[in-house]
Design a protein that fits this description.
Helix content: 25-40%
Distance between the termini: 44 Å
Number of helices: 12
């Protein structure tokens, strides 16, 4: 199953809106064939593994697959039909199909055909492989995630604004891996104007890859600047979308569109882009996941609005111990631990001297906003 997971990850970020799935066929204790789903509309991992085997499976053959085989015809035919027709006698499954309409049906179909089926092998790892797909298929809404790099005392920059670099090279390389996974990356206008980020995935040995790049700018401040940010002028500008409000000014909207940049004008009574409306628009456009990388004010507002689904925090062994250093999150009034926001399904990974903690955001029944905190988002 670990080999099947590795095979699935070869198509990291390339299968949206479908899941990543890996399959291997073992005969005589040896992996004889592999298959992985590569892209939406393409053949499924199980079919590719059976094709790669090149002969009828032996009596001792076992198919290992990271996700329950589909049992409905769809565009490529039901994988359960292909498995039964192949004559394979044993199937080992990692995770169950997250779609309530299909969950558990694949194993039932296979067992009814006389195939021995084992489920739940490395289940947590197989579920974690498809965070974005699992959220999308169950809720029909994008996974809204946020990433940050912090010191041990939860600061993202010194009081002077100095923040490069809090984490080491290994952690920053892992950020590029997550950028490659998510269909979209988002930042606020302040981040674009101050840091001028490229917001692309740059992984050693691979071509630079550009997701959808969102800039949250309710007043189109980033367009008023004479020095236009690179995301509005570079070779990937057609992949840039500015999320704004009716308060931004039609002249700036025309300027962006003339540059080839897309603009989403979302209904809002204030100058702040409403995250619930943004989420609905992403769902309509079939954008299944968005990774917010900054700034702290923007991500704090998403948290306050209960719109943040997943959080990734890289912690470096640094202490600023300065009350005026910039915190990673703010705006809540958590006077009791019962009112704290927690992470669920937590996973930890080590990158050099830094530690990544990530998990699903679990909101308390009551969450209080600090009314003294003001943010335009």
């Amino acid at each position: 199953m670990r080999q099947a997971l590795a095979v699935a990850r070869r198509n990291w970020g390339g299968t949206h809106p479908n899941p990543m799935v890996g399959a291997v066929i073992v005969e005589g204790g040896r992996v004889m064939a592999e298959g992985s789903h590569a892209q939406d509309g393409g053949p499924h991992a199980e079919r590719l593994a059976l094709l790669a085997l090149g002969h009828r499976p032996r009596e001792d053959a076992t198919l290992y697959v990271t996700l329950e085989p589909c049992s409905t015809p769809g565009r490529t035919g039901a994988c359960t039909d292909a498995i039964i027709a192949s004559g394979i006698k044993r199937v080992v499954i990692g995770a169950q199909d997250p779609n309530p309409a299909h969950a558990g049906r694949g194993p039932e179909v296979l067992r009814a055909a006389g195939i021995e089926v084992t489920t739940g092998v490395l289940e947590a790892e197989c579920i974690d492989l498809n965070l974005i797909f699992n959220h999308w298929i169950v809720r029909q809404t994008p996974l809204i995630a946020a990433k940050s790099a912090v010191t041990l005392d939860g600061r993202i920059a010194c009081r002077s604004g100095d923040s490069r670099w809090i984490t080491g090279e290994a952690a920053r390389a892992d950020v590029m891996r997550w950028r490659r996974l998510f269909p979209a990356i988002a930042v606020g206008a302040g981040t674009v104007m101050t840091d001028n980020p490229r917001l692309t995935a740059r992984i050693a040995g691979e071509p630079e890859w550009c997701p959808w790049r969102f800039v949250f700018d309710g007043l189109l401040r980033s367009v008023a600047d004479r020095s236009m940010p690179g995301v509005y002028t570079d070779d990937f500008r057609a992949r840039t979308i500015v999320a704004t409000t009716p308060h931004g000014g039609l002249g700036y909207v025309r300027k962006l569109r003339d540059l080839g940049v897309q603009v989403w004008i979302l209904p809002s009574a204030t100058q702040r882009v409403p995250f619930a409306e943004f989420r609905k628009r992403c769902a309509a456009e079939k954008i299944t996941g968005v990774l917010f990388e900054g700034g702290a004010q923007l991500v704090s507002q998403i948290l306050q609005d209960r719109q943040l689904d997943y959080l990734l925090v890289y912690r470096a062994p640094l202490l600023l111990a300065d009350d005026r250093a910039k915190p990673v999150l703010s705006g809540l009034r958590s006077e009791k631990l019962a009112n704290a926001v927690r992470l669920a399904d937590v996973r930890h990974e080590v990158f050099g001297e830094d530690i990544l903690t990530r998990g699903r955001v679990d909101y308390p029944a009551q969450m209080f906003i600090d009314e003294t905190t003001f943010s335009l988002g």
